[in-house]
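Researcher: Re-running this chain for the archive, since the previous output was lost when a drive failed. Same request as before.
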Amino acid sequence: MVVTTKTKFESVMDFSCVLTPRNIPLDSLSFINTKLISIEILANDLPVLADAHFKQEFKRSEDNPEVATYNSIFQSRIASSCESLCSSVYGAGEIAAKFIGPRFHPQMPNNFRGLKERLKAGDLKDYGLNPTLFDFEGHELILAARSETSHYSSVFVAMPSSERRTLSFKTLSEDMQRVETSSIPLEIFVSSALASIENLKTLICIFFDNVVFPQLNLDIMIRGNVSRDSRGIPIVKNGLLSPLPDISVRDHIIRCGLEHLL
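Model: Regenerated structure tokens:
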């Protein structure tokens, strides 16, 4: 039985907002978190946009009743959201790889593709990164869609009259003689995007457990702290920062909900 981590990504974020561990790039976790939030928003918006698009009815004008029209804005918004989502998944993975890879080992790949291959091969089991913890298929589907939209094709959304809610990619063949079409059901695209969020959160949490935490000196006092909100932004009252008393790294670990690591 594979045991995953008890550490929550939000707790790691809380910890890093106050104390950036040694040898960890400043704000890298914040950058990753921003992209993960973007992915989640876009993934949750897509079904709403799809409902608005596929449930609309064709309209015919009195002047030209032979021509049926519909509002194409939803197709454009779905396509734009898909491309933004793919880009965010790619970016979050690349930043995470640069954040994590070299800290496992100086020769570890610092790009997500290389890190993912090491994960799939089981090379990182010693760090608690068991391949069975990750949905590689879903993540790779999003990255494949990103390659299509970045290098070959736009996203095409089925007509409102279609019974299938699909995203299509039309790619010019290598001999430049024909167009090859591939499709992804919108539901699978959304679930794969959400799976990519969990992949990256799990990766970072296990990395924190097994690489960052063992290197912490729990007795060191954290000085010059100020009270911060859930986004890590200092709280200002009456024009002044809200000071907090000095706290040890050990107490900060507990305060962030990471006491299971002690």
